[in-house]
Amino acid sequence: MLGTGPVRFGHSFVHSDAFKALFQEGMELVEETAAYLDGPGRDDSRPLPRQVTVAYATESMRLTTRLMQIASWLLVQRAVAEGEMTPDQARMEKNRVRLASQDATTAIADYEALPARLKELIGLATRLHARIMHLEQLIAEAETAPARTSPNPVAAQHRMLEKLFGGND
After folding, report:
1. Per-residue pLDDT, 55
2. pLDDT, tens digit, for every residue of 17-68?
3. What CATH number is attached to the domain comprising 19?
4. Which of 50, 70, 87, 109 shows the greatest Cβ crowding within 10 Å of its Cβ?
């Protein structure tokens, strides 16, 4: 028989294949970025003019901060999915690590002069961050939605059909 309570989006999402893929994508991006910044990124930044070097440092820090926010969010969600953390504990943890939008302060000309790989990683992180912020909003809305006080109309129709056609076979 169908349940009468709503299915909470956050609970169902963290147990889905979509979440597992998102988690994998996020962690791979963290690893790729760390490998770039610790290796080829250093080489890419050496020949840059001073003003662009400052932009490189600023954008690298901004990227790292964004990725740490993403990783924290993903790890909290996974902990909830695996039963290591309750949803209430996750909410408390989310209050410590905010998924905040970051305003760009780098001049367009300086940004355009950055190495292509850094700009690519920034774009990937920005898109992933936007997706996660959207998911976080959906989860928050589902958690704060008022509990349904009226009976589930689909469940009521299902019960009527069971009575009419003897669905207890």
Report:
1. 96
2. 999 999 999 999 999 999 999 999 999 999 999 999 999 999 999 999 999 9
3. 1.10.8.930
4. 70
Q: Which residues contact 2 (CB under 8 A, 6 or more apart)?
A: 152, 154, 155, 158
**Is 139 contained in some domain?**
yes
Determine, yes or no, domain membership for 100. Answer: yes
Per-residue model confidence as pLDDT tens digits over 61-97: 999 999 999 999 999 989 988 889 887 788 787 766 6
First to last CA, the chain: 13
138/156 Cα distance (integer angstroms):
27
Residue 120 included in any domain: yes
| Length reported for the chain | 169
Give the number of domains in the chain: 1
Q: Which of 19, 142, 11, 136 is nearest to 85 (CA)?
A: 11
Rounded CA-CA distance 129/142 in Å is 20
